[in-house]
Design a protein that fits this description.
Strand content: 5-15%
Number of strands: 5
Structural class: alpha+beta
Oligomer: single chain
Order of helices and strands: HHHHHHHHHEEHHEHHEEHH
Length: about 450
């Protein structure tokens, strides 16, 4: 297992959990912003209502004073102590509330995902302009002497401009109410879109996490249970490039190897001909090894010559090629030398091997005619001295792993004993070699 591959499963888990947490955090944060905006809109509406109430208080105070203005100095002094400070506080409270409204309006979002505030801003600016003009006119009526303001004139001014204040506050209330309703409607739409989008995103992450990790783990567990119940050779689907992929590949190799070993141990020790056993070997080995050609040789007692017992391929062999291979099989000293080795031999680059081995005439013919690239040769020696050579050849480069080479070496004695004790009386000739002999 490579170090790069070993981290992919961790990365997927982190991405899956991170995606879920990030999606939840983004949705929660966005909904919180929408809630804050809704609260600000409601607060703005409350401030404007308060502004209306304060404007009405100013009007009532001015109208009341204008209708009951004092005609001598004594009541005027009383009004300077009682009426005038309250009147000034009402005006200051109205101005402060108007500043708060202006500040709240300026803080409202005004982007593509919010209801437009242009009309509201214009109305607030109009309100500020009207209020500034009202204050200027009111101060002119009070006169230049702050110690002796003309309260009656100021009250008359408030009374005469009652319509202006009502118009400004009424227009502002209508505009704010309309804007707030538009914002609430827009925010409701955005909330729905955000919830749907987040649901789709979270569902996508969950589905990806399930098929990328959870389901593959479940398949692996189910595969282990099937093998535990005796279904040797069961193969898991191999996808991706992470630890689960490596695990599936290792499981498939172990399962195929287990089936191959158990089947060969069983069939090699059953009574039967060498040809039936080589047929079983072809079938079972094809599930574990890549095979295009397979050959079995028997070494004579002197160890100086060999006899080709069986030759199989995944497609029909031409008669001319078959005769050539049969001739090379008896005189190929490289094969005789290989049968004397103690361990199996593999070559991942068959072309280079035959170039470096001048007497490898059998393999050279296969390379020339069939374009084969990898070979695995297994020397066979039984307990009673029977010797032979088993060869697997395929067109895939680097087809045989060290693990497969080691396993075939461990099984070589069992296969040799099976071939050595094959029932000759029940033997049937290799159909390929029998065809060659008839020709």
């Amino acid at each position: 297992m490579s170090k790069g591959r070993a981290n992919w499963l961790q990365i997927k888990v982190v991405l899956g959990l991170g995606g879920l947490l990030t999606g939840a955090a983004v949705v929660f944060g966005y909904l919180s912003l929408l809630a804050e905006e809704n609260h600000a809109s409601q607060d703005l509406l409350s401030q404007v209502r308060q502004l209306q109430v304060q404007g009405q208080a100013i009007q009532r105070r001015g109208i009341t004073y204008a209708g009951n203005a004092p005609r001598d100095f004594g009541p005027y002094e009383r009004d300077m102590v009682i009426f005038y400070p309250d009147f000034v506080r009402d005006l200051a409270a109205f101005e402060q509330t108007l500043k708060n409204v202006t500040k709240t309006v300026g803080a409202l979002p005004n982007g593509r995902f919010s209801a437009p505030s242009t009309g509201l801003i214009e109305t607030v600016e109009k309100m500020q302009t009207g209020w500034t003009a009202f204050q200027r006119g009111f101060q002119d009526k009070l006169g230049p002497n702050p110690a002796e303001p003309r309260l009656e004139w100021g009250a008359e001014y408030v009374k005469d401009n009652q319509a202006l204040i009502n118009s400004l506050t009424g227009e502002l209330i209508a505009t704010v109410d309309q804007t707030v309703q538009e914002r609430l409607r827009k925010n409701a739409e955005l909330t729905t879109i955000a919830v749907i989008g987040a649901s789709v995103f979270l569902l996508t992450v969950v589905i990806w996490f399930y098929f990328s990790i959870v389901r593959r783990i479940s398949l692996t567990v189910a595969g282990c249970q099937r093998v535990a119940q005796g279904d040797f050779g069961y193969q898991l689907p191999v996808k991706g490039n992470d630890e689960l992929t490596t695990l599936a590949q290792a499981f498939n190799s172990l399962s195929a190897r287990t089936r191959f070993v158990l089947t060969m141990l069983s069939k090699m020790h059953r009574p039967g001909s060498a040809e039936s056993k080589i047929g079983s070997l072809w079938i079972e080995a094809s599930g574990y090894l890549q095979i295009k050609w397979m050959g079995l040789w028997e070494v004579d007692a002197s160890g100086s010559s060999m006899r080709l017992l069986s030759l199989r391929a995944d497609k029909p062999i031409a008669d001319g090629l078959l005769k050539t291979l049969e001739n090379h099989a008896h005189t190929d000293t490289s094969l005789i030398n290989m049968s004397r080795e103690m361990q199996p031999f593999k070559s991942d680059k068959l072309t280079e091997y035959v170039l470096k081995t001048p007497n490898a005439r059998f393999l050279r013919e296969l390379v020339k005619t069939e374009r084969l690239n990898s070979v695995l040769m297994v020397p066979l020696t039984s307990d009673d001295g029977w010797k032979g050579l088993l060869m697997f050849v395929t067109d895939q480069p680097a087809a045989y792993t060290d693990e497969q080479v080691e396993l075939m070496g461990n099984l070589s004695s069992y296969m040799a004993n099976g071939f050595a004790h094959a029932g000759n009386e029940a033997a049937t000739p290799d159909p390929v070699l029998a065809h060659l002999a008839a020709a």
